[in-house]
Structure to design on (175 residues):
């Protein structure tokens, strides 16, 4: 993976934002699909959104989809958790909430995350803005008027394949 500012490819639908409003169960189901695709392609996944928007819910589901079997706690205090996924693949989950300045990224092993072979899921990715890899998936979560749903916007940047689209609802679970 290379670092630097990412730019959508003109005319490429993978670089366009796609938005959907999802329930928590739909977000978890989609997160597992994202995790399965991310482990297949070794994708760096950036998660954005305010506190409580669903970043951790999505990251946990993505780790499950990538084959992580044990507990998946938030790395808010440890900054990075590493798991073993499908076929022994290394799955990284980082939380940059406590990173106050980008110069602290080196201390947490940022270069290793950017160069990881397996999937990397990063909450609060905006805190590493200029240091994000060019090839990545971006997922933005936000609130909508209906408190049982979250707005999800997603796009692929650089040479990454398209993200899987969220499927139709099967059940409705409240936040």
């Amino acid at each position: 993976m290379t670092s630097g500012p990412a730019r959508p490819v003109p005319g490429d639908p993978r670089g366009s934002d796609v938005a959907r409003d999802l329930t928590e169960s739909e977000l978890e189901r989609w997160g597992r699909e994202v995790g399965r695709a991310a482990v297949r392609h070794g994708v760096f996944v950036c998660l954005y959104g305010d506190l409580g928007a669903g970043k951790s819910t999505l990251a946990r589901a993505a780790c499950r989809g990538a084959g992580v079997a044990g507990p998946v706690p938030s790395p808010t205090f440890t900054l990075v958790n590493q798991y073993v996924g499908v076929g022994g693949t290394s799955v990284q989950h980082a939380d940059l909430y406590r990173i106050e300045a980008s110069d602290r990224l080196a201390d947490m092993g940022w270069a290793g995350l950017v160069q990881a072979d397996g999937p990397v899921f990063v909450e609060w990715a905006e805190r590493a803005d200029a240091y994000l890899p060019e090839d990545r998936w971006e997922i933005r979560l936000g609130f909508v008027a209906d408190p049982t749903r979250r707005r999800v916007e997603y796009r692929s940047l650089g040479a990454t394949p398209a993200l899987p689209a969220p499927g139709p609802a099967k059940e409705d679970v409240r936040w």
User: Anything to note?
Assistant: The CA atoms of residues 93 and 105 lie 14 Å apart.
